[in-house]
What we know:
The chain has 11 helices and no strands. By secondary structure, it is an all-alpha fold.
Amino acid sequence: MPSRNTRAESQESFDARTSQDPEKLRGLALNRDWMVRYFVAENPVTPQEALTRLASDPKVDVVLVALQNRNVPESILRESVDKDSLHRGIAANQKCPVDLLAILAQSKDEDVRGEVADNPATPFNILEVMKEDGVQSVVQAATQNYNRKLDWI
């Protein structure tokens, strides 16, 4: 993740992080500076069209953040699931479809499984299985998420 405090922030970076204007964000999604595009991808009000473009950005950090954004179209998540390098971004998306979470919960990559275990959208039945994972950090995330869900009931 880019550092926000190492140097004076550009106006474009600031706008990309804070703008509530979909048109401005669409324009900033085309910026040459990958950090500006990263912040657009991270912005919770970035429109779907801009996130669709950012999901195929040449900079993988931008793509991963775009895939985590709740506004990214489901079709983009589904298209991206074939690329192992993008699984973490998909698994962290709180609107990720359950069938994709089930696939990603079986990943060989413990970081991907950890994202699934921590995702509030992951249902109880998947968390139950993940609580038996061989990696402690995954077990802990699944257990904590499971208990949070129980508290909501």
